[in-house]
Design goal:
about 650 residues, alpha+beta, five-stranded antiparallel beta sheet
């Protein structure tokens, strides 16, 4: 007979506790115990509780290798019979064998109904570190079970494949929002929906009568950024600023040579450039920048309320003045030059120039929502997450590293696929755009700091578990994960630049850094400011009801803007996704302790310390800015894509 002490921690959020029976089987090198009931006097497995149990095994199982956990409905005396099974969220188990040190078994999973699972001690192990047949067999069994549970599906041809779940009811409870988060997220939309409905704005299909009417119907709480946007949206400097620090700060690139389809001349830009210089001189000096929305060419928007909508694919040339201010020089709304596609200039009438800039803002909205935001954060992150579940066991160090950064991503993506957006494809890298010396580019400055912090943290973790490049190559589970990412997420396209295999520690570090950065900082940068820059709808119209002007002198801005109901539905959406709710976890926060060894714990502490310093520096800088840039402050960046 061998006595073991078992300590169990139950989750602290709503619905975590259970009335069901819980038992454990100890699997060791010398055998396996029968199921041992965990039962004290009174109610066990209460929400937020850590409870101790004493169990006696009929024999010594030797070194404990695995822990089988069983949950079954509690059976009451007749005539009551069994209670209906309920869910239980288990944080962890701790098993203390006779005369031995405690063994920690991380869990952090829901068990629904009559259920069971197998856990192993918390120390992370790469597959080539496991030699015991029981442990190797368990790795394979776990992966096989998950591959049957989590399957790939095609949402739309040509974009990353996704989880096979058509709605939230089909989503595994471990991938869904917590009850508190789901309630808070829905509650956030109650006020704007009721307020707009009472004014009959959500159902009004009429156009806006004037800009003043748009302003008077605004019912949302204001922020310094939304106020600044309303006051300065017509100004050239603010128009250009949004390419640097708005919701889509990833398209601007240095222009050393004008595209052939953008025939800007010296005479066109001379009023802004001033005397003593020329278009060619500024191109050569590196002071000109280009934003090209060519990816929108050929896009055919759907009708809204039975009326056609229109798109453009503009090219925008910008100039960084000697004082560092960025200003627009010229705008061409369609890709093919010609007499019916004029180049709009700051010297045009105020109405023509403002309408041209509004078309660019609309185009930037489309690229931002479909590509920069939805595809490059939400959908591609889901690819990495799904393949992680299918190819890496819980004990793998990369699984432990990445799992917190995939929290709630499946839930929000199912909501997106079933009701919000249409997908597409665009890839753009910061370094390739030659923007290192653009002034007031706070997105770039903060993003590079956070990237470096993540890279340092990832380098520490990789160094703990992969002593050399051959250790990466020999990790068959890791290679299977990378290959599935390439095949399912990037559709086996070599042109994507995404590897199908990794053969070095350096390559692995870069790969993991990219994933964590996209899950956290990049999503924050392209998501958090949506409402603030869009609250004043003319600054970011979601659709346009008239075609791009084919000549100057034809501007009708208000008639081009979305109708009342389209505007209001978009504002409700932006309000919902731009404001945090309950149950958020900041970048570098890991309350679920998947790593149990001291070395990775120290790396996490160092990572948190570096992020705290970055946050301090950003907040200090922002004190001197008229319009603070806050979206990449680690104090507000979430660990994962959750909204």
């Amino acid at each position: 007979m061998s006595e073991y002490r078992v300590r169990v921690a139950t989750g602290s959020f709503l619905g975590s506790g259970t009335w069901d029976k819980v038992s454990v089987s100890l699997v060791g090198a010398a055998g396996e115990s029968p199921a041992l009931r965990l039962d004290n006097f009174g109610k066990d497995f209460r929400r937020g509780a850590e409870e101790d149990f004493e169990v006696t095994a009929p024999q010594d199982v030797g070194e404990v290798l695995l822990l089988r956990v069983h949950k079954a409905p509690l059976v009451l005396p007749r005539p009551l019979g069994p209670l209906a099974p309920d869910a239980w969220f288990c944080r962890w188990f701790q098993v203390t064998p006779p005369g031995g040190a405690p063994l920690h078994f991380p869990c952090y999973q829901w068990l629904e109904g009559e259920d069971s699972l197998v856990l192993r001690p918390g120390a992370a192990k790469v597959i080539w570190q496991d030699s015991h047949p029981l442990l190797l067999a368990q790795r394979q069994a776990e992966i096989k079970e998950r591959q049957q549970k989590y399957r790939w599906s095609e949402f739309f041809p040509g974009i990353p494949r996704c989880l096979d779940a058509e709605n939230l009811k089909e989503l595994d409870p471990n991938l869904r929002y917590s009850v508190s988060k789901e309630v808070a997220q829905k509650s956030l939309l109650v006020y704007p929906n009721i307020a707009l409905a009472l004014k009959a704005l959500l159902t009004s299909q009429r156009p806006w009568r004037s800009l003043d009417e748009i302003q008077q119907t605004f019912i949302f709480p204001k922020s310094p950024t939304s106020e600044y946007t309303f006051e300065h949206w017509q100004e050239d400097a603010f128009f250009a600023y949004q390419f640097l620090n708005g919701s889509n700060p990833v398209l601007i690139r240095r222009c050393r040579c004008l595209p052939e389809n953008f025939p800007v001349t010296d005479a066109m830009v001379a009023p802004v450039l001033g005397p003593g210089t020329s278009l060619q001189a500024e191109l050569e000096s590196g002071s000109l920048y280009l934003v090209d929305h060519a990816i929108l060419s050929g896009l055919h928007p759907r009708a809204i309320d039975g009326q056609p909508q229109f798109t453009a694919a503009p090219l925008t040339l910008l100039y960084q003045c000697p004082d560092g201010t960025l200003l627009p020089l010229a705008i061409q709304l369609l890709q093919m030059p010609g007499p019916d596609n004029p180049i709009f200039l700051p010297s045009d009438t105020a109405d023509d120039w403002l309408l041209a800039k509004t078309w660019v803002r609309h185009s930037d909205f489309l690229v931002h929502e479909m590509f920069t935001h939805l595809l490059l954060t939400h959908f591609e992150v889901e690819t990495f997450s799904l393949s992680l579940l299918r190819q890496l066991p819980m004990c793998h160090p990369i699984f432990k590293l990445l799992l917190p950064h995939f929290r709630y991503t499946f839930h929000i993506n199912i909501l997106a696929r079933t009701g919000l957006f249409a997908p597409g494809k665009l890839i753009d890298q910061l370094a390739d755009r030659d923007v290192h010396d653009l002034c007031q580019y706070y997105y770039r400055d903060d993003a590079l700091q956070i990237w470096a912090a993540i890279e340092s943290f990832v380098s520490d973790i990789v160094g703990i578990y992969y002593p050399d490049d051959s250790a990466v190559s020999r990790d068959s589970e890791l290679q299977a994960w990378v290959m599935e990412n390439f095949q399912e997420g990037f559709l086996s396209r070599v042109s994507s630049g995404v590897p199908s295999a990794l053969d070095s520690c350096t390559g692995l570090i870069e790969y993991l850094t990219m994933i964590i950065f996209n899950c956290s900082a990049q999503h924050s940068a392209v998501n958090s400011g949506q409402f603030e820059f869009s609250a004043w709808m003319p600054n970011t119209p979601t659709t346009m009801r008239l075609p791009p002007p084919a000549a100057k002198g034809q501007a009708d801005l208000v008639a081009s803007l979305p109708k009342v109901n389209t505007t209001c539905h978009a504002l409700v959406l932006f309000w919902g996704v731009s404001h945090e709710t309950e149950d958020t976890r900041r970048l570098g926060t890991y309350p679920d302790q998947h790593f149990t060894e001291e070395a990775p714990k120290q790396s996490i502490v160092a990572f948190q310390s570096r992020l705290a310093q970055i946050s301090h520096d950003i907040q200090e800088r922002n004190q001197g800015l008229v319009l603070p840039y806050t979206y990449l402050d680690p104090a507000v960046v979430e660990n994962s894509v959750t909204v």
